[in-house]
Amino acid sequence: MKSMTQADALRSRLLVAGDSAKFWREPRFDGLECLAARFRKHVYERHTHETFVIGTIVAGCERFELAGVQYAARGGDLCFVHPDTVHDGRPEGEGYAYRMIYPTAAQLATHAAELTGRTLRGTLTFPEPVVQDPELSGAFVVAHQAMERSTSSLEADEAMISVMARILVRHARLVPSDLGKPLRERPGVARAMNYLIANLTENVDLETLAGVAGLSRAYLIRAFKAETGLTPHAFMIDRRVRLARRMLLSGRAPVEVAAASGFADQAHMTRAFKARIGTTPGSFARMTH
């Protein structure tokens, strides 16, 4: 049976009314294939992939046959398909919505190496094709949506690296290198903090920040949070809110402050500002002048 990309699998059957699919490749993750779709009628023919398939059912139910066994995946379930494994897919009832990624073995090995601190030996496996895990399912959706928006490199990178690390620990049974050890990386974390402060209005990506810290991406996220109480992205947003507050106090208009403090737009600043200050930037400006 011929192996195909997810784009090929979608093209094998025309989508009908009520079905939708968005396929893209994520350049920050070495061309990682991504799919967000909602299917009421679309049926996948039996096929295989050269890549892994990892993702979650957001709502509804998908039934599929995998290596001769029938499965039903529902909202909150995580799904795993290994390379070269024959499978199909079809909606049940009102259909289903799902979000998926299609990492190559090499891409997944990179995640595993960052997590464990050593080169992966043998083949990475997920013992269960379908697992009920609402917590990680929700985290995966957030990370997937962040990649789809692509407005903040650090937000998307951090979210996906973090959720993949948790998936590999919980469902591929990998052991992180820092398990049971204190995360003491003050010099590296300090370098990362200073870099974020110096580049507060820039779209910093996690790979660059990890290079500055001299740590792997996955380890930097955990060490940064252990040291500061915040992840790198949360730290950056917190410092941007501080900067925006100072600018508002100086009399600058909220619409001007949003861009000057590094936010994607005024709505983004408003959400972050209110979550930390308790009021909107406009209300804050009026109350302080």
Topology:
Blueprint: H1 6-11, E1 20-26, E2 32-39, E3 44-47, E4 53-66, E5 69-74, E6 77-81, E7 87-102, H2 105-116, E8 130-132, H3 134-149, H4 153-171, H5 186-198, H6 206-213, H7 217-228, H8 232-249, H9 254-260, H10 266-277, H11 281-287
Antiparallel strand pairs: 1-2, 2-7, 3-7, 4-5, 4-6, 4-7, 6-8
Helix pairs in contact: 3-4, 5-6, 5-7, 5-8, 8-10, 9-10
Brief summary of the model shown:
By secondary structure, the chain is of the alpha+beta class. The chain has helices spanning 6-11, 105-116, 134-149, 153-171, 186-198, 206-213, 217-228, 232-249, 254-260, 266-277, 281-287, and strands spanning 20-26, 32-39, 44-47, 53-66, 69-74, 77-81, 87-102, 130-132.
CATH class of the largest domain: Mainly Beta
Q: Count of helical segments?
A: 11
Total domain modules: 3
Mean pLDDT: 90
State the fourth-level CATH superfamily of the largest domain: Jelly Rolls
Question: Kindly, what is the distance between the CA atoms of the first and last residues, rounded to a whole number of angstroms?
Answer: 70 Å
Tell me roughly what share of residues is in helical segments. 40-55%
Total beta strand runs: 8
Question: How many strands, what sense, and barrel or not for the largest sheet?
Answer: 8 strands, antiparallel
The value of Rg in angstroms is 21 Å
H/E series: HEEEEEEEHEHHHHHHHHH
Look up the CATH topology of the largest domain: Jelly Rolls
* Unreliable residue stretches: none
Task: Output the structural class.
Answer: alpha+beta
CATH architecture of the largest domain: Sandwich
- Estimate the global geometry from the Cα principal axes: globular
Relative strand content: 15-25%
